[in-house]
Fold this protein.
Amino acid sequence: MIAEAKINDLNEIYKMGEKLHQNYRKTNKLEDLLNTNYFKILIYKENDIIKGFLSFSVTEDIIDIYDIYVKEEYRQSHIASILLDYMISNSKINQKIMLEVEEDNIKAINLYQKFNFNIINTRKKYYHGKDAYIMERVNNSE
């Protein structure tokens, strides 16, 4: 089941986020962000277990994806695809959806390309000496 994260989900989201970024809890004040009308976290939850999440911000014409994470034991279950598809399906027509991904994160790049994201730019040596791809798709009726 997909739902928007609530305050009582944040401890588990922080634990998952720290697998992405060591300082996730320190650099992301999710309690404050959830109280805005532009930041969202979708969670994938089964049997009261949060198995993954997708965080993003929404402005009038752009969605910026920040993080997508699925617990290791639930990978290969299409949870990331389900979360991404849900977010895309609930966005506005002609709204741009953007993200950035490390150049050697092939699994993530393949996932995004499956959803018609294209590499539009490269940030040289952005991730500890590795390049970052900026990817984009325009949500249309495809």
In short: Residues 2-98 form a domain with the Aminopeptidase fold (CATH 3.40.630.30).
